[in-house]
Write a sequence for this structure.
């Protein structure tokens, strides 16, 4: 898997909990505290080891950590912007999730995002099916969708409990599309703005 | 290759189909459309185009707002455009922005010769979006504008990340290289770097380069300093010796620490025995000046064996090293603190 996933976990731990937490997790999982290179590939087992160590150090269930990672990721400005290209409002955004793995591949071949499928259940109720190479992507998506709801100013209920076989389910109830004011988003960045980090 | 029917598929046997499109409907499908009458006056335009050229352009000639850059004929008008022709225009007020599109003559319009033009931003889409403050709603859902912007931004992020990675790897490579080639105590090049430099000098000489001298220097009485004053004193001496060697040599010469208290020098030419002897004498005199460690003087000297690689002598690195070594041995035997130049 591309290092960008491990790098995201690393960045989340150090910016959300502090460098000392990251260093402890790194030590427990036998990873160089300098961490990961986003553009290099690493063994998938390293990701498992990192998450195991994070669970132990933070004394927090894995699903909760993964949800926080999803939310944190969506709030990093470069990622928030890329996700906002999904649509003008939250409804559009939800339906753009089907295309998210394709967009990910377009940006970075080998990224390995999970397969996503949005189904409409009833008025305002949706289910996102998440099928990833390793379990846990459902929780990441739940966190990401919650954070993006705040960004779009939408009021939603998100529940990431369901799961059948390799497919995790996230249910979304869209209560109010324009509950609060959306955060500002310009389609184009100001000229000359270069950003240095995906995550 | 299958050619598309330019008229598009139509139900066979159907009577001539007619569509009635209002500017409002057109504007939703094609936010950058332009409707011209036969004299080129703007009859209607899409909302995004109106944002760019201003709705006061309605009723005026298109030529006041658009410069035609590419189309058959001289002018954008029915007489110069065949149906379906690709055109390119520049905004008169903002010449940096090009749009491209398709112009078709409207059949069955009230006025014959009326034109419908559908425009789109080309590669300057990002700049146009920024400059005119466009949003998702300014583009038709069928357009790939948003995908284009997404891709441009995502690729920039990936590229930045890759460039940063390349920079980090390059720094690590340089660091590893310099660590592999230098002596950590004195910072001088090490044996490996010296061997490579000697190899280069020999090869250059074989190709007709200048003569050079190879000096093998061994400190005298260094063991006593180490034994009497400790290794820290010895290290101080070695660092000072390295400084003196660096000061006494010129740019282009080479000084390396190749062992505990052994140094190798390559002096670039042209050079002869007399110059080597003078250089060695000056060097030894400076090295014999006491070096103070913790207020106590450390006194060393140096024995040197030298050999000159001269033009046409057919210099071989191994033989030169052996000659310098035996010359050094003779200096030691003759009472130290001196230089012997091996006669070729």
């Amino acid at each position: 898997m591309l290092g960008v996933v491990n790098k995201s976990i690393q960045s989340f731990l150090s910016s959300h909990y502090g460098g000392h937490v990251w260093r402890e997790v790194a030590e427990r999982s036998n990873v160089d505290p300098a961490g990961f290179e986003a553009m290099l590939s690493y063994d998938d087992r390293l990701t498992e080891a990192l998450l195991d160590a994070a669970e132990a150090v933070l004394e927090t269930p894995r699903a909760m950590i993964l949800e926080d990672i999803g939310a944190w990721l969506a709030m990093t400005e470069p990622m928030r912007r890329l996700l906002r290209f999904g649509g003008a409002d939250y409804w559009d955004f939800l339906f753009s999730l089907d295309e998210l793995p394709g967009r990910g591949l377009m940006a970075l071949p080998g990224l390995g995002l999970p397969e996503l499928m949005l189904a409409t259940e009833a008025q305002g109720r949706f289910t996102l099916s998440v099928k990833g190479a390793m379990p846990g992507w459902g929780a990441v998506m739940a966190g990401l969708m919650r954070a993006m709801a705040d960004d779009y100013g939408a009021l939603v209920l998100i529940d990431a409990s369901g799961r059948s076989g390799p497919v995790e389910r996230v249910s979304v109830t869209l209560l109010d599309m324009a509950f609060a004011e959306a955060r500002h988003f310009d389609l184009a960045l100001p000229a000359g703005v270069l950003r240095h980090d995906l995550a | 290759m299958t050619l598309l029917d330019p008229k598009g598929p139509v139900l066979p046997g159907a009577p001539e189909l007619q569509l009635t499109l209002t500017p409002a409907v057109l504007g939703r499908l094609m936010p950058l459309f332009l409707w011209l009458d036969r004299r080129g006056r703007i009859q209607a335009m899409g909302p995004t185009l109106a944002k760019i050229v201003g709705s006061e352009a309605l009723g005026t000639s298109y030529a006041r707002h658009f410069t035609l850059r590419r189309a058959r004929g001289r002018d954008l008008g029915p007489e110069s455009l065949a149906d379906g022709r690709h055109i390119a225009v520049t905004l008169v007020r903002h010449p940096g922005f090009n749009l491209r599109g398709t112009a078709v003559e409207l059949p069955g319009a009230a006025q014959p010769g009326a034109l419908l033009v559908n425009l789109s931003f080309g590669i300057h889409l990002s700049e146009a979006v920024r400059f005119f403050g466009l949003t998702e709603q300014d583009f038709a859902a069928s357009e790939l504008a948003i995908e284009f912007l997404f891709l441009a931004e995502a690729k920039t992020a990936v590229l930045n990340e890759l460039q940063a990675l390349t920079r980090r790897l390059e720094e690590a490579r340089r660091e590893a290289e310099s660590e592999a080639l230098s002596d950590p105590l004195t910072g001088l090049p090490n044996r490996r770097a010296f061997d490579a430099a000697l190899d280069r000098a020999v090869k250059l000489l074989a190709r007709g380069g200048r003569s050079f001298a190879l000096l093998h220097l061994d400190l005298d009485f260094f063991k006593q300093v180490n034994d009497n004053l400790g290794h820290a004193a010895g290290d101080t001496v070695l660092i000072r010796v390295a400084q003196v060697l660096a000061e006494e040599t010129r740019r282009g010469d080479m000084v390396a620490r190749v062992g505990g208290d052994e140094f190798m020098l390559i002096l670039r030419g042209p050079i002869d025995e007399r110059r080597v002897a003078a250089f060695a004498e000056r060097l030894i005199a400076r090295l014999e000046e006491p070096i103070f460690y913790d207020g106590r003087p450390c006194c060393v000297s140096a024995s040197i064996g030298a050999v000159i690689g001269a033009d046409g002598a057919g210099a071989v690195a191994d033989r030169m090293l052996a000659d310098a070594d035996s010359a050094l041995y003779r200096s030691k035997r003759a009472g130290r603190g001196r230089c012997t130049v091996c006669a070729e």
Notes: The interface with chain A takes residues 126-127, 129-130, 133-137, 146-147, 149-151, 153-158, 160-162, 164-165, 168 of chain B (CB under 8 Å). Chain B has a mean pLDDT of 85. The domain at 191-342 of chain B is CATH 3.30.70.270 (Alpha-Beta Plaits). Chain B has three domains: 23-141, 144-181, 191-342.
